[in-house]
Amino acid sequence: MKTEVLCLLICLGGASALTRKQEAMEQNRRKVASPGLEKKQQQAGTEEEEVYEDEEELSDKCPEPNGYFPASEQCDKYYDCRDGNPIEKLCPDGLVFNDFSAQHEKCDLPFGIDCSKRPKLQKPQPTPHCPRMHGYFAHENHTICNTFYYCVEGKFNMITCPDGLVFSEKTGICNWPDEAQKKGCGSKELFNFTCPKVDDAIAATHPRYPDTEDCQYFYVCVNGEIPRRSGCKLGQAFDERTGKCDWARKIPECKDWYKGQLTDEELDALENPPPKPKSTGGPSRRKHPKST
Q1: According to a count of CB atoms within 10 Å of the terminal CB, is the N or C end of the chain lower?
Q2: 97 burial type by CB count under 10 A (0-12 exposed, 13-18 middle, 19+ buried)
Q3: CA atoms of 163 and 187, how far apart (whole Å)
């Protein structure tokens, strides 16, 4: 009896050992017979990862389900998000997306909009005098400091700054030369004038000096150092003795400055303008008291 039990245990153990060996062989056979199986499984895992990455990308484009949101790298590109689905859009060439509010779809000139973190822009579409279709652009000749172009749909208008000012490419407006900081367009190059050295007390008053070539104009030395050219209104000249503007005919060295430009009658009219008519105020809207 013991012999039979022992034989049964050995036989069962052998069968069990044989089964495990067969299973291992079967697994190896399957790997050899189906080499693409693991690859498919790996691809399936990759697809799941890609789906996850796409969801992250959508989240970057649409931080909220609805609204208008800037692209992460390009300043003139943005996304119109509807129920979390982004529609890619571009501003007109020369304009950038203003992300002041997710509720407003607004493209603006780049001045005053921070594009430092998304500096890329679409390919320019230049036309004569317009490096891009829209915007304010400096004159092609860098020595011409007070003239610039305003471009709309690739069509330009040439604009000249008031005397003493230059075009600032940073702000898109006319500005003082020291603030515009345009190369070759500083006060020294433009005016050929340097502020005289003065003590701190005089410097604090921003002293004024006449333009020796033009009676109508003068220089203000900001803090006694930075010259800015300014001017008097038509018919007037700068009086060095008072540091103020006055009628040119009252200033000996400038009394004939406007000869050939304005007649004596025109100068008289400027110096003594007719009084403005008093406003009648129109009909009163108050109700008159009823007569008894």
Answers
A1: C
A2: buried
A3: 12
The answer to whether residues 84 and 57 touch, using CB atoms and an 8 Å cutoff, is no
pLDDT at 88: 96
Read off the pTM.
0.64
Question: What does pLDDT average to over the chain?
Answer: 82
pLDDT digits (tens, 9 = 90+) for 230-265: 999 999 999 999 999 999 999 999 999 999 999 999
Q: Which of 159, 165, 103, 156 is nearest to 132 (CA)?
A: 156
Strand partners, 85: 82
Structure tokens at 271: 């110096």
Shortest CA distance to 83 belongs to which of 102, 63, 62, 66? Answer: 66
Q: For 147-155, which contacts have Cβ atoms below 8 Å and span 24 or more sequence positions?
A: 151/94, 151/127, 154/125, 154/127, 154/130, 155/127, 155/130
Rounded Cα gap, residues 123 and 107, in angstroms: 17
Give me the pLDDT at residue 118, please: 94
Alpha helices per DSSP H over the chain: 2-33, 36-61, 177-180, 187-191, 200-203, 264-271
Tens digit of each residue's pLDDT (9 = 90 or more) over 121-179 = 999 999 999 999 999 999 999 899 999 999 999 999 999 999 899 999 999 999 999 99
CA dihedral 201, 205, 206, 207 (to 10 degrees): -80
